[in-house]
Write a structure and sequence with these properties.
By secondary structure, the chain is α+β, with helices and mostly antiparallel strands. Helices cover about 35% and strands about 15% of the residues. The strands form four sheets. Strands 1, 2, 4, 8, 9, 10, 11 and 12 form an eight-stranded antiparallel beta sheet that branches. It has a two-stranded antiparallel sheet with strand order 3-5. Strands 6-7 form a two-stranded antiparallel sheet. A hairpin with an 8-residue loop joins strand 11 and strand 12. The protein is globular. The chain binds adenosine monophosphate (AMP) and magnesium ion.
Amino acid sequence: RQIRHLVSASLKPVNSPLIQRESSGPGPCMSIALSHRYTESLPADSERSRQPRIVEGAAYSFVDPDPVSQPRLLAWSTALGDSLGIARPSEDQDAWLQVLSGNTRWSGTSPYANCYGGHQFGQWAGQLGDGRAITLGEFVDRSGSIHELQLKGAGRTPYSRGADGRAVLRSSLREYLCSEAMHALGVPTTRALSLITTGDDVVRDMFYDGNPQAEPGAIVCHVAPSFLRLGTFELPASRGDTPLLRQLVDYSIEHHEPDIDHRDPDALFAWYEAICRRTARLIAEWTRVGFVHGVMNTDNLSIHGITIDYGPYGWLEPYEPGWTPNTTDAQTSRYCFGRQPAIAQWNLSRFGGALTHLTSDTERLEQCLASYAEEYEHASQAMFASKLGLVDLQSEARQQLLTDLFDLLSMTETDYTLFFRGLGAVPAERPGEAEPQAALMPAYYDPAALQGEVGQALRDWVARYQLEAKQQPDAVRQADMQRSNPLYVARNYLAQLAIDEAEQGRTEELHRLIQVLENPYTEQPGMERYAEKRPEWARHRAGCSALSCSS
Ligand code: AMP
Ligand code: MG
């Protein structure tokens, strides 16, 4: 099925003598093939201008990236580049650097911006679309899988509304860093191939307080099976454009659901259920690693169950279910850590609402949606059992242990990542040991708080934990727990330190951080400071614990 859509392109970049030289030998670029299945299967906007407008009856608009002055490569994912067959650009005139900054079009590609809508903060927002993201095309990797390569911050599109289509370095660096860190953690995500500074300034009012400032601009190249999102389907449904909705659904099933036959009359239900289930597993994974997305609008949830659109995201440091890093959401905390499972379900219910335009069997759709809760329950129970190093959570005592743990973590500021990581080192085989809770001390932001009631609650909980945990040898349990509980996560303040340096033109910190986060479960000698809880100075600094949507 895929072969029909694969078109081998010569992949000579336009106007680039350098690459022509490379292609004449066994250069890495030669092995790349292009696919046009998306643009060939789905209707395009008939207009070509980038004038902001309402686009109807089309899934995307052809638009080229806007050139930039002085592209410079700041970061490159070698593993991803290798799997795609793209070598790291080594100099400023490198053809791939020109392509990934939007300065040259790779021959054979027809870049486009997607049309979609979405529910934002609980309200239908109408047409949104890729206002600053442009897909270069679909590239076939060495194993035959197809990936969309999408530039974020590549200039205006018909979906930019009043905005500039650009992105600043700080948000681009955060997006690059976090998506690669999520991949290393084993959490489904879009990948990032490159982080490029453009040499052009972008003006942003970071705190929305009337103080716009010029900031360095940047472009990230994202990679995903597709950037289809729940809002992609909601938009034609909201307009009563059933034929387009049908086409989008058929396309998604045919090309992205190898286990579902798109001609099967039940395909719609099987597809909806599959999306519900994988979204449930994704949210359980976010919970496992303490990730807060920050803007879970329906336009920011993928049909593939992968994390997309890293904006004002954050990592839970002190355990606090009501915490959100997004200052725009500070009033209602709609998208806080503890609400993510319920919000995903709400988003899926909006998406299911869109699908009612294709079937009158709403009861069946409801059943599919119910699979979300079932899958989440299952995935989160298994996830917490593995975080605790217990075989399962099926006894009443273990359920209570988990419930009481959340109470314990809420009593005083306790680092979510470090607590679970330390728990693996709590001995259980010989429960008589003097201070079994010692390994948990690094997780406490205020160790003095442990002197009274909190200390007693901790000792009591640890004693009960030991009774359950001793069913496995300590070494086995600890090894298991280290696979579920990362030591290094992309803490906001660490990203901010890398941003501070990168804005001054230095990238040592960024590269060290990328390297540490590539192996988040493995203790790395000399890298202890990346595994520490947030320092006091970072508590209120912008970018370190609170972020605006400005990007
Ligand atoms: P987000 O909250 O980042 O998912 O973005 C929501 C919508 O705003 C999407 O349609 C984006 O394409 C659009 N958008 C955000 N920033 C910009 C920008 N600088 N220029 C154009 N469109 C933007
Ligand atoms: Mg978005």
